[in-house]
Amino acid sequence: MSDTRILSLDEIEELSFRALVAAGTSEANARPLARATAATEADGIASHGLAYIPIYCEHVQCGKVDGTASPLLSRPKPGVIAVDAATGFAHPAIDLGFASLVPAARAQGVAVLAIRNSYNCGVLGYHTRRLAEAGLLGLGFTNAPASIAPSGGATPVVGTNPFSIAAPGPGGEAAILIDQSASTIAKSEVMKHAREGRPIPEGWALAPDGSPTTDPEVGLKGSMAPSGGYKGVGVALMVEIMAAALTGASLGINASPFSGTLGGPPRTGQCFIAIDPASTAAGAFDAAIAELAGAVHAQGGARLPGDGRRAKRAAAGRAGVAVSEATLARIEALL
Amino acid sequence: MSDTRILSLDEIEELSFRALVAAGTSEANARPLARATAATEADGIASHGLAYIPIYCEHVQCGKVDGTASPLLSRPKPGVIAVDAATGFAHPAIDLGFASLVPAARAQGVAVLAIRNSYNCGVLGYHTRRLAEAGLLGLGFTNAPASIAPSGGATPVVGTNPFSIAAPGPGGEAAILIDQSASTIAKSEVMKHAREGRPIPEGWALAPDGSPTTDPEVGLKGSMAPSGGYKGVGVALMVEIMAAALTGASLGINASPFSGTLGGPPRTGQCFIAIDPASTAAGAFDAAIAELAGAVHAQGGARLPGDGRRAKRAAAGRAGVAVSEATLARIEALL
């Protein structure tokens, strides 16, 4: 495409950092978010990369995020790290927590990081992958404003709430990386169809009375369809329990929107569990992961979750990423 | 129905116990399995209650399960309990592990139980519910012989692999109990249709080449359809990593069948994570769970996972359970 420009990962990180700081984010808080933005572009997830920088900047300026917040860590038990994100960005709170979570998991065999008063953490698998790169199995949960209705109901009670699991490989990489939301499709896709005035396929969203709809505007007033029906609701509830109830964060029914400028801080949460597989599997973990991955890759055309991101990441490290000129223009206007 | 008989929960437990012991199970191993069988009938899950007792007895007699095994516990780290089920029943291995898991989770804030060389653990939510009744948040994972194919492939690599989460309520009960498999429908339903010569709905199972089928025999030679497509595969992979790779148990691709007498012990695994919510949520957990449950129950007709089992359990405690006379005849013939 002619309306893109190739940027290196370092250039993406620096551009993100400068824009965030220009909007009033402290350097200490801007750095981890800028780093995650570059990694997300490297993974090929443009919807959550640079395109989010103008939104983050707007949220600092309207007070939905405190750009100068200092997250506060406590250690209530040997295996528990609790971080109050203090209505700042999730990324510095996660960084602060991981610095204690990783050694705690190595010492105890397992440790939990519970983050409250937080914000949208971007791509959840970016964070669990870092645990795998530290040689730990990482489980992650993050909640969002309510958009999925319970079975038998029509009013949203839980968000599209993703979970993620990253399994470490022997070479310091994530051998398997699962990162999936509880809805059939991302809410941003329904919003995109609404902006473009196009109908949505049946099965993406439901009308306010719970009936199927192909009108994206009606779907946005109703609820997102859970993946696999009641089992998608179950996944969203699991994540809500882990990321909000277990951390002391806001439930999705009480959280302000992640989009727009209204409502103040969402105060949602994240929960991560890190486990040392060397302590649980009696030396058998690496071989099992390799055999499982091998059984998938032996089938022509079959793939594991995370394969696509890994291939894109390797290419982006060598050749950079093609970024939309329109997105770059919006960010450069903020500097 | 005239072909049922009302039994009290104690009668169900004793009948199960006597049949298991008559088949060669030690009393120490028969008791937890008999107790779980009564609880499963109380929950209204007849498919996994007394109907399984003749199968368990046959598996002791053919050597698929060692009825006199002694599970072996080790404590490699303060937060990790590992149990080798020694190809015995899963239930005594879980009991042995929980006796250490519960105090470890209270002391550390979080602990993991990894069980290998194990067997079908019956209803997974029976076990996580016990953690919730001890005031802990319980997460559970158990793997099964491979029956679901990866995205883009047609050969099974993971089982119908359920996960479960049980959130404790303030009164010592499980306020929310999620227990769901990764497939659209239980494999036993496809087997039942095959026995009865009835077609299955499209979307339940796939032919060996990965195409849709309504023939249950073809589906049983092919694979089970994952719930929600690739997201169901993701759930099954998460469970496989937790229950098999992380514990040192057999992967589903190497496990012998749970049904029939061939192949020796399946050597599959279970993993449980117990977390003390008092240590992670700064006192906010009970109110959050109550508010989340309240938001569901405020909608007429809406329900939470676990509501149905709880209602049936209350009724069964008062009035007993109607059990199939045919099932009772099969069990009484074993005494």
Topology:
The structure is a homodimer of 335-residue chains.
Chain A: E1 4-7, H1 9-22, H2 27-42, H3 53-62, E2 72-77, E3 80-84, H4 90-108, E4 110-118, H5 124-133, E5 137-142, E6 163-168, E7 174-180, H6 187-196, E8 205-206, H7 216-221, E9 223-224, H8 230-245, E10 268-275, H9 277-280, H10 285-297, H11 307-319, E11 321-324, H12 325-332
Parallel strand pairs in A: 3-4
Antiparallel strand pairs in A: 1-11, 2-3, 4-10, 5-6, 5-10, 6-7, 8-9
Task: Give a written overview of the molecule.
The structure is a homodimer. Chain A has one domain: Ribosomal Protein S8, Chain: A, domain 1 (2-Layer Sandwich). Chain A is about 40% helix and about 20% strand. Chain A contains twelve helices and eleven strands. In chain A, the strands form three sheets. The first copy, chain A, has a seven-stranded mixed beta sheet with strand order 2-3-4-10-5-6-7, sandwiched between helices. In chain A, a hairpin with a 2-residue loop joins strand 2 and strand 3. Chains A and B meet through strand 4, strand 6, strand 7, helix 8 and strand 10 of A and strand 4, strand 6, strand 7, helix 8 and strand 10 of B.
